[in-house]
Amino acid sequence: MNTRNVYIIGAGVSGLVAAIELEKAGYYPVILEAGDKIGGRIQTEEVEGFKLDQGFQVLLTAYPEAQHYLDFEALSLKIFQPGAVIFKPGDIFSVYDPLRKPLKMIPMVFSKVGTVLDKVRMYQLTKTLSVKRDEDIFSSTDMTTLEYLKKKGFSGKIIKNFFKPFFKGIFLEEELKTSSRMFEFIFKMFAIGNASIPEKGMQEIPRQLFSKLHNTKIQYNTHVDHIENTRIYLDSGDVITADDIIVATSPETVFNQLDLGPPAYHAVTNLYFSTEQSFVAKPVISLVPDEQFLVNNFVFLTDVSKSYSADGRALLSVSVIKDVSAVENLEKLVALELEALSGIRSAYFRHLKTYHIPKALPAVRDTKNWLPVQHTKVYDHVYLAGDHMLNGSLNAAMTSGRKAAEALIGAYVV
């Protein structure tokens, strides 16, 4: 048993993974969590018998860190169909992954998503990235994702119909300014693994991580005002003196004395509706390429996991990337857009809840997938964790938590 007083600030994925690694080394850490539950940005709420993930999120089964820390079988993962369905008013067509679904090769050739040459290039890109090493991806020449797609020769048609709406929904920004390294990594993850959700909601992921902890205490509703050296000042006025600290939350909120610059995040608005049944009727992500629409993408989560509904009604998750802070009657406008896309009257889309998530994803300038353990160190005995240090992903959150714990443990190894 290690008797050092180690505190972790934040019970999100990074903090939980850090605690797992510290326990392996004999530590008994304490997690200070501002909220009343674990999970950080991964939360699932029950509303009227439906499970609502706060923000449309998926688990990519190819994530290396997820494979290490999670028991996929115990999560009872439900799998999305590879590809996407494109919705335009009066027109619907599909995108298929020919490597994963060879029988869809012919339909893909004739799909209106892009030109025949686009589909050849898509096939080649999928094949190339499937075998490209992660370290080669993250050391490659960097550019924006949009520049990358144009350099690869993709037409404006397929960029508009598929790449933009699909990756806008992942990167949560409208211009595809996100690093091409991140694009290659995520594209590879989709190519070699599956997009999935746990049967009972995304919060099953942090719950499973928490279940691995046996010697860690969590103090909920504990708001940290700031940190000075190894003293933790709480909003309550109490002061905790720690031997070591891992900050697994937005660092600018606790380091008053450090010039960390303004925080940068991408936002998303996630709306939920219930309907009697799905008009898509298959476990697939649906994209809306028309930029006049507020809706960027949507999915019937009950097509993926029936457990998201208690009574058999369909649950529809809608993502809006645009700034809607000044939009009035948002729910009615989105329902009208769904009517235009599906032909189903807007009155049949019953609104359940809307989540405005201003800090949905960190806007990372220097995108990477690995960092030396010493780079997690702020100063002696204080360490950082969080996906903001690498890239905006569950994989990065886990990596950073592990690296922070390794740095702390390594500081005492002679």
Characterise this structure.
With about 425 residues, this protein is an alpha+beta fold. It has 3 domains: about 5-40 and about 205-260 and about 365-410, FAD/NAD(P)-binding domain; about 45-80 and about 195-200 and about 265-360, Polyamine Oxidase, Chain A, domain 2 (Alpha-Beta Complex); about 100-195. It is built from 13 helices and 21 strands. The strands form 5 sheets. A 7-stranded mixed β-sheet has the order 8-7-16-17-18-15-19, with helices on both faces. The chain has a 6-stranded mixed β-sheet with strand order 10-2-1-14-21-20, with helices on one face. A hairpin with a 2-residue loop joins strand 20 and strand 21 (about 380-385). Keywords: Oxidoreductase. This is NAD(P)/FAD-dependent oxidoreductase.
